[in-house]
C-alpha cells in the first residue's frame, strides 16, 4: 500500500483527501460526479457510474467535451485491466492533396477539415455492453434530464464558456457555424455563473443514443443528420465513415516504476510519453521534491520523451518503432545519459527494434475506471449538427501535412491523440485510476502526480494540489504562480527559459482514486484548479 507522509496537504487546497468505502466518483463538475454516484446507489457498478458521469459531462461542461468527441478508458474488473480506444478515424475521402486544394497548407483548427469520426457515444455503448449492470437508458437519464431541464452554470465553467464564445465570435464568421452560436450562446453571449442553460436538442440526442445503444449515432437517424450536414456544407465526413466506426479493445502498456506498474493506453495516444519519461527518471534517486535538481531532471526527461513521441507516435500500424522498443530499459538508459546539469535542446532518438474532461470511478465490488473524453481545443471544430446539439470535435488538427511524417494526414486514419487515462497497480492488485487532462500537459501531469505519490508520499489531494510546471517547446518552461521563486530562479540558472503563468487551468485538471488493498477503503483527490469534486459513498 502507498505510504503517505502527510495526511493533510502542504499546499493551498479547498479540501483534504476524501475517504469512502462503498463507492466514489471524482471529476471536474459536481453535478456529473453526483450523477455517477446516484447510479452506484441504484445498483450500478463503477462502469455504469463512469458512463453516467461522462454523458453528464457533455451537458454540464460543454467547454471541454461533447457528444461529438473521442474517449479512452482503462477498466479494472475481476483482477484484470482492460483498455478501450474509442478515438475516431479521419474521413475516408480526405487527403493532404484535397486539403491543399481547399487552400490550406496546414490543417485548420475549425470547420470540417479537422473533423474526425466521434468516438464517445461508441465508448459509452461498448462499456455498457461489456461490463455494465444497468440499462444504458437508466444510466444516461441524469444527463438527459440536465440537458432537457437545464442546470446552473458553475463559476469556472462560466469563465471558459465566455472565453470560448469571444474567440469563436471573432474567428467563426461563416454561416456554417451559426448552429454553434444558436446552441451555446442563444442570448448572444455566454451564460453567466448561476444562470440556467439547457439544450433540448442535446437531450433528444442523448435519449436516442441510450435507447439504441449507440446505433442511431453511427448507423441510424443521428448518423443521417450528421452526414447530411456534412454533404450540404462541404464536409468530408460521410455516412460510410460513421457506419464503419467501432471502438477497439486494446492491451494497455506499462512500465515498472519503483515497484509499481504505471499503465496507459497504447498509441495512437500519448500515454507512452509519460511512461518513457518515468522509465528515464527511475534511474535517478530523488532526495526531496522541492529541489532544483528534481525539477530539472523531470523537465529534461519529459523533453526527451516528447521529442520521441512527436517524431514516432501515431496509430500503431503506421509507427516505425513498436511501443516495447520505446519503453525498453536499454533505450531509457541511452536517453538518460543525455541529461546533464544544463537545459538541453531536445531531439528525437532512434529506439531500436492538447479541452478535455477526466473522471475516475470505483465501487465496492473492486471495479475501477479511468475515463477521459474530449472535443479538443475547448468546444471543438465550431460545428454543431442542426437539431442535435452535437458539437463536432476537431481532433484532426493534430495530423501532419508532411507526407513523410508517421502522423501524416490520410483517409481512414487515427491521429496522434492527446487524451490519456492512467492506472496504477502493484503486485497484480489495483491501486487505482488517475488522470490529468489538458492537451499536451497530460503526460507531464501524469509524471508529476505519479512521482508526487510514489517518490514523495503525497496523498491524492496533495499530489494534485502541488504546484505544476509545463514544458512548452525548446527550453521554454511555464510554472504556476505558486511555484517557489527560488526554484524558478534555480532552473533559470541551469538554462531553462522560465515563465510564470497566472492562469491555473493551463496546468491541467486531474482526479485520483486509490484503493487500500487491506481495508478496501477508497482515497480520492480532485482538482482544486476548477470546480472539481469527489462524490463519496
Automatic annotation (TrEMBL):
Q: Which residues cross the membrane?
A: none
| A Gene Ontology molecular function term of the record | transferase activity
Protein keywords: Transferase
UniProt superkingdom:
Bacteria
The record, for InterPro entries, names: GGT-like_enzyme, GGT_ssub_C, Ntn_hydrolases_N
One Pfam assignment: G_glu_transpept
UniProt key word Cell wall biogenesis/degradation: no
This one is known as: Gamma-glutamyltransferase
Q: Which organism is it from?
A: Virgibacillus indicus
Organism phylogeny: Bacteria, Bacillati, Bacillota, Bacilli, Bacillales
